[in-house]
C-alpha cells in the first residue's frame, strides 16, 4: 500500500513502513512554505541578497527534506535554509522555526526576536499564546495552525486574509 502525500512543491509516496513522525514533518514543511507565500515583510527587512531566509533554531526536526525548499521562489526571492545552534546566529533570518530543543529558551528568543520583522513558527501546544506568530498543532490527527495576530502586527508583517481564514486566531496569555 502506498500513502500519497501532496505538499506543494512536494509529491511523495510512502509505503506501509511509513515513519509517521517524518511524514508529519513533511506536512509541516509544506505548511511553512505556504506561510511564506501568504506573508509580506517590510522591504527594509531584506538585505541586498534578494533571499528569503528560513532559519531552523535548534535540532532540525525535518531531516534532509528541509532542503527541498532550498532555492524555491517566494515572490521574487529565493528561499534559503539556514541552521542556527544559538540565538546569536539568527541575524538575517526572515522566518524562524523554533525547534522543540530550544523551547526552554523561548522567553529569551522572543525578547530578542521581538525587535525584528521575523515570522516565528513553532509546533508545540500553547506557543501562540506565548507570542509565537504561527504555531502548528495536531488536532484529531490533522495538522492545523494558530496565528497570534498581535505578534504579527508588532513585527510589521502582513498575513493574507486567505491564510487567516484557515487559522485559529489566538491572543497572548497576558491579554
Question: In summary, what is this structure?
Answer:
The chain has 175 residues and is an alpha/beta fold. Helix content is 21%, strand content 31%.
How is the secondary structure organized here?
Blueprint: E1 3-7, E2 10-14, H1 20-37, E3 39-40, E4 51-57, E5 73-74, E6 77-84, E7 95-98, H2 106-113, E8 119-122, E9 134-139, E10 142-148, H3 149-154, E11 158-159, H4 161-164, E12 168-170
- Uncertain runs are 1-6
Radius of gyration: 16 Å
**Main sheet specs:** 8 strands, mixed
Strand order of the largest sheet: 5-6-4-7-8-9-10-12
Q: Total number of β-strand segments?
A: 12
Please state the structural category.
alpha/beta
How far from one another are the termini? 48 Å
Coarse shape: globular
Order of helices and strands: EEHEEEEEHEEEHEHE
Structure characterization notes:
The protein is an alpha/beta fold and 175 residues long. It contains four helices and twelve strands. The protein has helices spanning 20-37, 106-113, 149-154, 161-164, and strands at residues 3-7, 10-14, 39-40, 51-57, 73-74, 77-84, 95-98, 119-122, 134-139, 142-148, 158-159, 168-170. The strands form three sheets. It has an eight-stranded mixed β-sheet with strand order 5-6-4-7-8-9-10-12. A two-stranded antiparallel ribbon has the order 1-2. α2 links the parallel β7 (95-98) and β8 (119-122). The radius of gyration is 16 Å and the shape is globular. The termini are far apart. The model is unreliable at 1-6 (pLDDT under 50).
Question: What tags apply to this protein structure?
Answer:
175 residues; alpha/beta; 8-stranded mixed beta sheet; two-stranded antiparallel ribbon; 4 helices; globular; disordered N terminus
Amino acid at each position: 500500500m502506498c500513502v500519497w502525500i501532496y505538499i506543494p512543491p512536494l509529491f511523495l509516496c510512502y509505503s506501509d513502513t511509513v515513519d509517521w513522525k517524518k511524514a508529519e514533518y513533511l506536512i509541516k514543511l509544506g505548511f511553512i512554505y505556504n506561510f511564506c507565500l501568504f506573508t509580506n515583510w517590510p522591504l527594509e527587512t531584506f538585505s541586498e541578497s534578494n533571499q528569503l531566509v528560513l532559519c531552523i533554531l535548534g535540532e532540525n526536526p525535518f531531516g534532509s527534506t528541509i532542503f527541498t525548499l532550498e532555492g524555491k521562489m517566494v515572490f521574487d526571492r529565493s528561499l534559503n535554509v539556514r541552521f542556527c545552534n544559538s540565538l546569536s546566529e539568527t541575524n538575517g533570518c526572515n522566518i524562524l522555526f523554533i525547534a522543540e530543543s530550544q523551547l526552554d529558551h523561548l522567553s529569551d528568543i522572543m525578547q530578542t526576536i521581538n525587535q525584528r520583522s521575523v515570522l516565528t513558527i513553532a509546533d508545540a501546544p500553547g506557543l501562540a499564546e506565548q507570542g509565537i506568530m504561527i504555531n502548528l498543532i495536531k488536532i484529531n490527527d490533522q495538522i492545523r495552525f494558530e496565528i497570534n495576530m498581535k505578534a504579527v502586527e508588532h513585527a510589521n508583517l502582513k498575513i493574507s486574509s486567505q491564510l487567516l481564514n484557515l487559522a485559529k486566531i489566538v491572543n497572548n496569555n497576558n491579554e
